[in-house]
């Protein structure tokens, strides 16, 4: 059992304590690029010698740069990149098909880290017509996880990590207006406005 950690615990101490859970594992992480939280995470766990690091992100050039940084620092680590835009359900389906149908040399995924996400970007809709935060932070990761689930549950003790924040506590999810079609105006309408705000 690893030593109890505090706010002063270093990354190297964490990696040392959890090395047995990382060593020789296949770990797929989304939202990976140099200088980001995802990038720092994969560079750190590479020190514990996983079998494979699968780096997933939207930008192919940034993925290639991240992969090169890892293999330069840890040349014995096998690295593979996966281009996927989690804000597009079509892109998610294509990426999952690549993992499932063309990666015979990676039959299982021990750890999936759903790290990719956006916050406070300008209002826009995904290619399928969903508000971008909902598409990128929720629908895309949910679909991706379920599409590759056979490779995840092919091992005895799989791990799925979802990186998030507690911002959801600021306001409940508005199922009646998930795309903000009604917008903030609904907050100022009376209970007899005709909107069903209980859903």
From TrEMBL:
It holds the Pfam family adh_short. Keywords: NADP, Oxidoreductase. GO terms for molecular function: oxidoreductase activity. The keyword Oxidoreductase applies. The keyword Transmembrane does not apply. SUPFAM superfamilies: NAD(P)-binding Rossmann-fold domains (SSF51735). InterPro entries: NAD(P)-bd_dom_sf, SDR_fam. Signal peptide: none annotated. It comes from the Eukaryota. Belongs to the short-chain dehydrogenases/reductases (SDR) family. This is Short-chain dehydrogenase.
């Amino acid at each position: 059992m690893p030593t109890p950690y505090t706010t002063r615990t270093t990354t190297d101490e964490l990696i040392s304590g959890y090395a047995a859970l990382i060593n020789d594992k296949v770990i797929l992480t989304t939202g990976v690029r140099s200088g980001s939280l995802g990038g720092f995470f994969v560079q750190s766990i590479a020190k514990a010698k996983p079998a494979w690091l699968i780096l997933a992100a939207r930008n192919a050039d940034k993925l290639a740069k991240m992969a090169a940084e890892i293999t330069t620092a840890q040349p014995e680590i096998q690295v593979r990149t996966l281009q996927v835009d989690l804000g597009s359900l079509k892109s998610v389906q294509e990426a999952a098909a690549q993992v499932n149908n063309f990666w015979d040399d990676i039959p299982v995924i021990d750890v999936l880290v759903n790290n990719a996400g956006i916050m406070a970007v300008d209002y826009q809709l995904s290619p399928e017509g969903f508000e971008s935060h909902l598409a990128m932070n929720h629908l895309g990761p949910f679909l991706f996880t379920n599409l590759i689930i056979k490779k995840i549950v092919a091992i005895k003790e799989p791990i799925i990590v979802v990186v998030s924040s507690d911002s959801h506590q600021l306001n409940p999810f508005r199922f009646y207006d998930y795309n903000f079609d009604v917008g903030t105006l609904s907050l100022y309408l009376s209970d007899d406005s005709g909107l069903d705000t209980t859903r």
